[in-house]
Write a structure and sequence with these properties.
CATH architecture of the largest domain in chain B: 3-Layer(bba) Sandwich
Strand content of chain A: 15-25%
CATH topology of the largest domain in chain B: FAD/NAD(P)-binding domain
Number of helices of chain B: 22
Low-confidence stretches of chain B: none
Radius of gyration of chain B: 30 Å
Radius of gyration of chain A: 26 Å
Largest sheet of chain A: 5 strands, mixed
Distance between the termini of chain B: 53 Å
Number of strands of chain B: 26
Oligomer: heterodimer
Largest interface: A-B, 30 and 36 residues
Helix content of chain B: 25-40%
CATH superfamily of the largest domain in chain A: NADH-ubiquinone oxidoreductase 51kDa subunit
CATH architecture of the largest domain in chain A: 3-Layer(aba) Sandwich
Helix content of chain A: 25-40%
Mean pLDDT of chain B: 94
Low-confidence stretches of chain A: none
Strand content of chain B: 15-25%
Number of helices of chain A: 25
Shape of chain B: elongated
Shape of chain A: globular
Strand order of the largest sheet of chain B: 8-7-6-9-22-21
Number of domains of chain A: 5
CATH topology of the largest domain in chain A: Rossmann fold
């Protein structure tokens, strides 16, 4: 077999796994073209190398910058290293629908010629031949809804901006992806910068916008770099000359505040002010950036637009359900075998995503958190729910921007709620009373429950305050911050009750509500646990004193016999009790 | 722009708005009160406090009325239970992070709620007449209380963190000594209402005083030959000279409308039913005079402490030497007895107490002074038997040890088997507590005290009761507080007003015991001098005469003692919107609990004091400075619960601050204020 080209995934996920070394070494070792390409979504397999041969393509997974691994790639030797070969499972391929991300992995992301050769800018060209209002209509007909989580009709939003007669109008691409565990927008900006820009330029043509911003969090340096290069190329080719004059396109780096994903806070940040939301109306389309009519959409929304224009609204809306048309990117993370990024049609069930694509063992999953910290959990019993905006809302969760965090059976749902609220309450801008103080008080209450100091009143407080924080907050951050708590209370109330009534953590995750014991039948008295215990909580006769033990798990992890385990609170030995009695 | 009229309703009332007008604006134009903390007409909307929420009926959502504009044809609720609850919760949340002291801990600690900080400040500035005026708003017996008060205020004084409290009671004593005779409060003319008061002790006198201040006449009936109650017959001359008491009591008759009838006993000379018929209301304030039992054989041979003191008092603090004297008990009455016995000439006086000195209910100063005067103490000693042995008494006692804590929290004394011993004495005095001898016909509680409604002190029909006979033996200042309470209740009843003292809230930074000395935020630079030292008469004079032990401090010394006061109270408490709205909406500190932050006061500006602990992050000051004054001296920093308002890089207000005070005037709480406490 002849190698024609080698592609190495060099998005942030690949780079973090060591792809840069792999890329450099391959370039040194071979004369065939070695390309650094975008992320094709198989994060579990990074660094990922695709070798294009005359007989087709071969995928290598987890390739490190070692001679052995590079040799394996270049020799196309898969027999000796079967674990290095990646076979993309049919459970995944059969469910994927790569309408937006189809070009990823085929060329270097900033290579504009390659993008054009794959049909890039065809959508823009087509749009420019159409009257602006026809473009708006096309987007309306596609039934595209905002991919940032709000789900507002994109076409309607465009028509609102288009209706403004004022001279200067602003389009802002929201790349302030803040949900922990979500990386759809980063991937798109890193891997498909031209497609995002193309969507914005189409929007500018349709709405008469004169100024374009891409607001991207500064923690995404590669996305910023690629987008900036892409802007330069677009300017060079004068693709930004919509309506005769070249449009101003600018990247603004956000400082990482979660709340700046909210559109009015984002505008404040863009203006150089502290990112704090304000009351709407006026909506940004009436008064946005420096008072100008402004339209803000998410990265993924813009990435959808060229596809809609190129293939037509009918083709787009043929995919999906009434509650959501087209495909959606999901970032799969958590207790799952194959974490990564996946593009699937709306209407696919949670079970298909989690069990089939994600490879989770049925029965090993307790719930999934959708919509990041603003969303809610959905229990495994409801995994046959089709994924779209409306069906997830009806379950007390949200679609959000596409983060799916899978929660395994070994996780405590109270701790999960505490974890998410820990994030949101810290990220409050501090303005609204209910969000700043109410969310903090809810967080403190959850801390109290996980520490074993909770009461039944605490559960009632969480429900009451959760409802009020949602009702009494100006922006989406406060209005959704209680969601993880309310959803876990809705589906996993018994776990809360076990914490406050029985003083037990059913998942044995909360340190204050479980004990550690050593099974003498399995123990070989190897002393490893004794050596690993920083607090000398284990006696010479292999008994863990749970009054000293902090449940750090060092002994459990060190034990080769699996003789040490967490058990229900009260089942372990407690030195102080014995001492008092003695 | 064409102005449209938008028709909508609030609480079912039809109203119209101009385009752009907010719900808050329209509501206030139509006389509907909506509370808000973050709204200021001069600036763009902050929409932060969420106290102004109204409910949009069509969607069921709560909207901030300061920012939301009405939708044509829609309905809004401002007075529904749901809106009230949201506002209350918003205020409760703000109170849970708001930290400061609405009132000083001393004022809160005072049972009579005397404005301690205010009268100490008046004294510090040398205006003791003003100090007396402030004191007498709450304490009509300042000469007495200035001498005998156990000083609840000083026990809670924040200065305890760094040593000794401000000598608060010396201000009261000096102010009264200087100006009591000349000072006359402004009095309303007397109306036709009249009240009978049984008992001319502190509670009865205070009831009469506060009734008079509301134009109500009172007739006081006192069974003893002279008025004053415990002040005259319980508290010894060396603590409260009766010449001073006479001066103090003279004022009551000088006020006009207070008539004291001595030698009249309820149940013998007058009957309750008659009083009820002849007067608009009756106050039972007969005190707590019945001795508690020692529960030991032969206890009838012992003197009853209160009665014994009363006898000495009636003999004008003279009497025969009691000889070898044993006083049983550990309270203030026991201390009064031992010290009186010394003064009557005994050189062998002992106090027997069944627990240890730590558990003694008597004031420490009384114990110390008794010891100085030669009183011996025997702790963990309880009487078992009292017998006659010739002219002497033989007292058999048993040693005790401390066991588990009892209901009072004190460790219960338990007898040690076989530890009995006997001593001989000329006089044995039992001073182990007093009970109320309640008049027949009045309901009593399980302790035998008169059973009252705790709020109004109302007993039955037009009968009220106040003082020791309600509370059990307590302090003069508590009796005075009860007298005021009963007077207000009666005045409200008689004048037809419902007892409607608005409920006030008090935010407190906490008790000094739970505070970190380094976190002590001071509103002024207090002096760190030592506490004033008081002059006592010689020990010899103390042992042989009933002269007053402690002398009143001089004006200069007391004034400079005032420099030690931290003046903890918030300077904005009378204008604080958080306090006002919280009181209106039933929000209370502590309703929602959680961690609070303690940040230093920023006192670097010459005129402005910035207390971030009181800040509710409404953002008005930031916008006033920016949008009205065209400066940007203040801004938000941090996120989440750590959000605070401050100056750039926390460098303090820069020189470009024009001292315009706009931020201070706009601050809804006391977070930004003038440095008033110089």
């Amino acid at each position: 077999m002849q190698i024609n080209e080698i592609r190495v995934g060099v998005s942030s996920c690949g780079l973090a796994a060591g792809a840069q070394d792999v890329l450099n070494l391959l370039k040194e070792r071979t004369d065939v073209p070695v390309l650094g390409v975008g992320c094709i979504g198989h994060c579990y397999a990074e660094p990922l190398v695709e070798v294009i041969t005359d007989a087709g393509s071969l995928l290598f997974r987890n390739i490190q910058g070692t001679t052995k691994d590079i040799d394996a790639v270049l020799s196309l030797n898969t027999k000796n290293n079967p674990e290095k070969q990646l076979h993309i499972r049919s459970e995944r391929t059969s469910r994927e629908n790569l309408r937006i991300t189809g070009l990823i992995g085929k060329s270097e992301p900033v290579d504009i010629d390659a993008y054009v050769s794959f049909g890039g800018f065809d959508g823009l060209k087509k749009a420019l031949r159409m009257a602006p209002e026809s473009v708006v209509d096309e987007v309306k007909q596609s039934q595209l809804r905002g991919r940032g989580g709000g789900g507002f009709s994109t076409g309607v939003k465009w028509s609102l901006l288009a209706a403004k007669s004022s001279g200067d109008k602003v389009i802002i691409c929201n790349g302030d992806e803040g949900d922990p565990g979500a990386f759809m927008d980063r991937s798109l900006m890193e891997s498909l910068p031209y497609q995002v820009l193309e969507g914005m330029l189409i929007a500018a043509h349709a709405t008469g916008a004169t100024k374009l911003f891409i607001y991207c969090r500064a923690e995404y340096p590669l996305a910023i770099r690629n987008i900036r290069i892409a802007i330069d190329k677009v300017r060079e080719l004068q693709l930004n000359a919509i309506g005769g004059t070249p449009l101003d396109i600018e990247v603004k780096e956000g400082a990482g505040a979660f709340v700046c994903g909210e559109e009015t806070a984002l505008i404040h940040s863009l203006e150089g002010k502290r990112g704090m939301p304000r009351f709407r109306p006026p909506y940004p389309t009436d008064s946005g950036y420096h008072g100008l009519p402004s339209m803000i959409s998410n990265v993924e929304t813009f990435a959808n637009v060229p596809v809609i224009l190129r293939d037509g609204a009918a083709s787009f809306s043929s995919v999906g359900t009434a509650g959501g048309r087209g495909t959606k990117l999901f970032a799969l993370a958590g207790d799952i075998k194959y974490p990564g990024l996946v593009e699937v049609p709306m209407g696919i069930t949670l079970g298909e995503i989690i069990y089939e694509i994600g490879g989770a063992e049925p029965g090993s999953v307790k719930a999934v958190q959708t919509g990041g910290p603003s969303g809610g959990c959905i229990p495994a019993s409801l995994f046959d729910t089709p994924v779209d905006y409306d069906s997830l809302n009806s379950l007390g969760a949200i679609m959000g921007s596409g983060g799916l965090i899978v929660i395994g059976n070994n996780r405590c749902m109270v701790e999960t709620a505490r974890y998410f609220l820990d994030f949101t309450h810290r990220e409050s801008c501090g303005k609204c009373t209910f969000c700043r103080v109410g969310a903090k008080r809810m967080f403190e209450t959850l801390e109290q429950i996980t520490a074993g100091d909770g009461t039944k009143d605490d559960i009632a407080f969480l429900e009451d305050m959760g409802r009020k924080v949602k009702a009494g907050s100006l922006c989406g951050l406060g209005a959704t911050a209680p969601n993880p708590v309310l959803a876990t209370l809705r589906y996993f109330r018994s776990e809360f009750e076990a914490h406050v009534v029985d003083k037990q953590c059913p998942a044995l995750e909360c340190a204050a509500l479980c004990d550690v014991t050593i099974d003498k039948a399995l123990c070989t008295e190897c002393k490893l646990c004794l050596k690993n215990c920083a607090l000398n909580a284990i006696s010479e006769d292999y008994v863990v004193d749970n009054d000293i033990c902090t449940r750090c798990n060092s002994c459990i992890e060190s034990c080769a016999q699996d003789a040490i385990a967490r058990v229900k609170a009260g089942q372990g030995y407690r030195g102080s009790v014995e001492r008092e009695v003695g | 722009m064409v102005t449209e009229k938008i028709a909508f309703t609030i609480d079912g009332r039809a109203m119209t708005a101009q385009t752009g007008e907010t719900l808050l604006q329209v509501a206030s134009r139509n006389g509907i009160f909506i509370p808000t903390l973050c709204h200021d007409k001069r600036i763009t909307k902050t929409t932060s406090c969420f106290v102004c929420v109204v409910r949009h009926v069509q969607s069921g959502r709560f909207v901030p009325s300061c920012a939301a504009t009405p939708q044509p044809g829609h309905d809004y609720e401002s007075s529904s239970a749901a809106v009230y609850e949201m506002r209350q919760t918003a205020l409760n949340l703000l109170l849970s992070e708001h930290s400061g002291d609405c009132e000083s801990p001393c004022t809160i600690a005072c049972p009579a709620h005397a404005q301690v900080e205010e009268y100490v400040r008046a004294g510090r500035k040398g205006d003791f007449r003003e100090a007396l005026r402030i004191i007498k708003e709450r304490i009509p017996l300042p000469i007495s209380i200035g001498r005998v008060c156990p000083r609840f205020c000083e026990k809670d004084c924040r200065r305890n963190i760094n040593g000794t409290p401000v000598a608060i009671n010396e201000f009261k004593r000096l102010a009264a000594d200087l100006h009591y005779d000349e000072y006359m409060e402004a009095l309303p003319p007397l109306g036709d209402k009249k009240v009978a008061i049984v008992g001319a002790g502190p509670a009865g006198l205070a009831s009469a005083y506060f009734l008079r201040r509301q134009g109500i006449t009172s007739q006081i009936f006192e069974r003893m030959p002279q008025p004053g109650g415990m002040l005259r017959y319980g508290i010894p001359e060396y603590r409260l000279p009766k010449s001073l008491l006479n001066r103090e009591l003279a004022h009551f008759e000088k006020m006009g409308g207070i008539f004291i009838n001595c030698g009249v006993t309820l149940g013998r000379d007058i009957q309750l039913e008659t009083l009820q018929q002849e007067y608009d209301a009756v106050v039972i304030s007969i005190g707590c005079w019945k001795a508690a039992s020692m529960r030991c054989d032969g206890e009838a041979l012992a003197q009853d402490g209160i009665a014994w003191l009363g006898k000495v008092a009636q003999a004008d603090w003279t009497g025969k030497n009691p000889g070898r004297t044993i006083v049983i008990g550990g309270g203030n009455t026991a201390m009064d007895c031992v010290r009186t016995a010394i003064r009557l000439g005994s050189n062998n006086v002992s106090c027997y107490y069944r627990r240890t000195e730590n558990e003694m209910p008597a004031e420490q100063i009384e114990i110390d002074e008794a010891r100085e005067e030669g009183v011996k103490f025997a702790f963990l000693t309880a009487p078992v038997r009292l017998e006659k042995k010739g002219n002497l008494l033989k007292l058999t006692c048993i040693r005790m040890e401390l066991g588990e804590p009892d209901a009072s929290g004190r460790r219960r004394p338990v007898p040690v088997n076989g530890s009995e011993f006997s001593v001989e004495a000329d006089t044995v005095i039992a001073a182990i507590g007093q009970h109320t001898d309640a008049p027949s016909g009045l309901k009593t509680n399980k302790w035998g005290d008169v059973d009252v409604n705790a709020e109004s002190l109302h007993v039955i029909d037009n009968v009220y009761s106040a003082g020791d006979c309600v509370s059990g033996a307590a302090t003069v200042v508590e009796a005075v507080a009860a007298g005021r309470k009963v007077a207000i209740a009666i005045a409200n009843q008689l004048t037809g007003k419902i007892c409607n003292v608005p409920e006030t809230i008090n935010v407190s930074r906490g008790h000094w015991r739970s505070m970190d000395p380094n976190s002590l935020a001071k509103l002024r630079d207090a002096s760190d001098d030592a506490r004033i030292s008081l002059h006592h008469i010689s020990l010899d004079a103390r042992r042989t005469t009933f002269s007053e032990v402690t002398l009143t401090a001089n004006t200069a010394a007391v004034s400079s003692e005032g420099e030690r006061c931290y003046e903890c109270a918030c300077t904005s408490r009378d204008t604080c919107k958080l306090k006002q709205h919280s009181e209106k909406y039933g929000a209370k500190p502590g309703a929602i609990r959680g961690k609070q932050r303690f940040l230093d006061y920023d006192t670097r500006h010459p005129v402005i004091i910035h207390d971030r602990n009181k800040c509710i992050k409404c953002g008005i000051c930031i916008k006033i400075c920016n949008e009205v004054i065209n400066q940007t001296l203040l801004g938000y920093k941090n996120r989440g619960y750590l959000t605070e308002v401050g100056t750039a890089y926390n460098t303090g207000f820069p020189g470009s601050c024009t001292d315009c005070m706009s931020c201070i005037d706009a601050c809804p709480t006391g977070a930004l204020d003038r440095r008033l406490k110089q």
